[in-house]
Amino acid sequence: MYLSPEQERTLSGERGEAKELAMTILAKVGEALGADSLVPIKSAHVLAHYSSLHEAGIEVLEKFSSSGGRFAVPTTVDPASVDLENWKSFGIPEEYAEKQFRLCAAFARLGGIPCWSCAQYQVCNFPKAGETVAWAESNSVVFANSLIGCRTNKITSGLDIACAITGLTPRFGMLLDENRRAQVAFRSTIDRPTDLDYRSLGYYIGRHSGSRVPGLDGLPRDVSSDELKHLGAAAAAGGPVTMIHYVGITPGSESLKSASGGERVETFDVGKKELDGVEADLNQSEEKPDLVALGVPHLSASELGQLSKLLDGKKLKGGTRMYAYTSSQAFDFVKRSGVKLEIERSGARLTHSTDAEISPLKKLGFDVVMTNSAKLAEIVSSEGEVKIRYKRIAEIVEEVTS
């Protein structure tokens, strides 16, 4: 892999220990992945949650921060493993929280933007079409490539920090034109998709695309960015999806033909039968839920407003908690607007800067979790410790409230 003279000097240690370590990671990973060079990025989005990174992650971030490392580009961060403001009231053990706060401190010393959201593209990190970024969150990667029109690979932990410190990323994968064309297509035949339909459709695409870039036709014209957020998140949970060509939405994908670069690709119709199959696969139990978890990825302020209307005049039944996960920015907005109070009148709680998928749900005493998130259903159920119930939001509210 080619390195410029300046990059060679960084690799040799002339620009300090932190940049030397970061460039070493980039050089080794880039060569392993067949990259021909390193290219500049406009922003980074990194991981700093204890539930996935553990002690090794703390060691890496503290190593970078203690050796003089600073982020070279605007760098946002995925949710933490605890609600950074209200962790005690959610029953998080102090020892566990302290581990997370060490990661927070190291991230802050590196100069990061503390948004702590998996939907940073909605609140604090806004790239433009055509820009190259280095983002580590899977749903964000799909959103960036598919809707914004910028370019990023799914950047793994460790590599994400190296990209942020150098302002560079290896040139491979989704940064190359030839790898971004649709290689398989799906056609939705669902007339009026529900919240669960969008998520199940995404999961089905992830499961059946393999390593191919999918195209998707047949979505309603009024599909929202929130619905596409959840669809993309489900696709990335179901398989190694980093981009979906939404016909008529994705820049340059006015048709399946343009999405595929003129090549004919295998096309699958997806209807009620296929989505029912996804629901059957993700549902593991019909037991009463201990927890209803909404917001994987984070709910927007608009979605929280919709939730408040669903919960209006209702109360949670005993024995079930409901947590709605969101960004701190959306949390502050709905607090000022009164939506937070409307939601919490039902007995539900809003929580910010964290997410259910990276929270210690089992340690908090939850055995059965109900959700409308295919991403949460896939990730939590794969751990085998918590049973999942996967339902439409309307069905969830009807069952757990009176």
Features:
single chain, 402 residues, Aconitase, domain 3, 5-stranded parallel sheet, 4-stranded parallel sheet, 41% helix, 14% strand
SSE topology sketch:
Elements: H1 5-11, H2 17-32, E1 38-40, E2 44-46, H3 50-66, E3 75-77, H4 94-109, E4 134-135, H5 138-148, H6 159-166, E5 168-170, E6 184-188, H7 195-209, E7 214-217, H8 225-238, E8 245-246, H9 256-259, E9 266-270, H10 272-282, E10 291-299, H11 301-311, E11 321-326, H12 328-337, H13 339-344, E12 349-352, E13 368-371, H14 374-383, E14 387-390, H15 393-400
Helix pairs in contact: 2-3, 2-6, 3-4, 5-8, 7-8, 7-10, 8-14
Q: What report would you give on this structure?
A:
The longest helix has 17 residues, at 50-66. By secondary structure, the protein is α/β, with parallel strands linked by helices. The chain is 41% helix and 14% strand. The strands form four sheets. It has a five-stranded parallel β-sheet with strand order 12-11-10-13-14, with helices on both faces. Strands 8-7-6-9 form a four-stranded parallel β-sheet. It folds into three domains: 5-177, 2-Layer Sandwich (Aconitase, domain 3), CATH 3.30.499.10; 181-280, no CATH class; 283-400, Aconitase, domain 3 (2-Layer Sandwich).
